[in-house]
Amino acid sequence: MLAENDYATYEIIDGVVHVIYKNIDLDISTSVRIVKDRLKLQAGRFMPVLCDIRAIQGIDKAARAYLSLEGSAFVNAVAFVVDSPVSEMLSDIYLTTNSPTIPTKSFLNSEEAIKFLNRFR
Amino acid sequence: MEEHIEQRLSSLRVMLLKMLSGSYYQRIKRSEHNDILESFIIGFNVLAEEFQDVLVHQGYANRYAAILDVVQMSFIIDEHGMVEMVNKQACNTLSRRKRNIIDRPFEALLTEGSVKKWEKVFQQCAKRRAFDTSVDLVFKSKGGLEIPKTVYVSRYYKTAQGYRTLITVIHHTNYQKKLQSGITGKINKGKLNEKKRSVKDRIALLKKSKVRLSLEDIQKIKMGHDMILTNLEHDFPSLKEFALQLGTNEFKLKYGFKELYGTTVHKFLIEERLRKALMMVLYSDRPFKSIAEMTGFKSLPHFSRSFKNTYGHSPSEMRKINNG
Description:
heterodimer; A: Transcription Regulator spoIIAA; two-stranded parallel sheet; 4 helices; 8 strands; B: Beta-Lactamase; 4 domains; 13 helices; globular
């Protein structure tokens, strides 16, 4: 099932939610919207989530805080897909400053990310 | 060296020096380049943000560091958006001369993205006699750095000269710093001089001043904070036991937690449990009994009561309202 908003596209493939972020700057209002739409799609089921953040420009502190708490609702585990200095730095910052409460890891490609997430299905 | 690299390295240098001098409110402008230098620029901006937060939060162990809200920048704008008055601090903060700000458009001080935001607000402003609002804008400093601020806008009527708009920008700092920068008693010294302190309060303050948290203590408290978040559904031990688990004592845990997070351990626990529960109530069909269990509440009535206390509606009301 595919869904989309101004900030990301969503698809559930084999029990994993694929969230592909667009070329945006994440602040608290965009984060709230992103989480809301993902939760609508999941309809109350716990699932692992793949976050493709390769196109993201930046993420402010309030957004990071929101995503690490409310943004982890109904999530078993999160895998980031990164591929550039900027996206790697953004995921590193998130991992260090926001100590997420669920298993979270970064990968350079989707295949490895899915392999990690499959352990949590 | 390529021009854009030189330019960005130079911004990085200015930023580093600014941070070393103790100011954390400026940011380096982001560029389209997706290289290692850009990743460092991101890192520095986030570092400055974290430092700023620490400052507002009074840092770790503190003595009489009451937070002061000080007016950092104020402007008076005329009906055409031109700056009629600007205070000295604003000139310092923006690294510009007064004569380069007065009689020029206010927009000239903002980044492109903020100009659009400002125009919208200013237009809204122009439609009413009196108008109060706040908006987040990013100022440009002379050194090429950006300064994001929350700006308070207030429109009023000045007879014979038409409408004027007052813009105020607040800066958080602490008492110690203000003393050092030489601003005297006109500033509200916060809680300290407020009312006569009872004996109990004075003893409490004295106790506070004797406790200094070491870096190790802070690490333990942070660990405690994280442990609570990952174990919301489990029973919470007594503060004494919890402190022991973390390798500290109850007093340090209580005091340190309050200093770091501004709330007590128990209040924090309930808040976070309810926060998790809210997401489940709003975005799933799970029965409230199971939500209560998953968020560590001992019984459904206890859960519903706490929920209603915090959110103003019972879980069932909240779900109904959200689902329309």
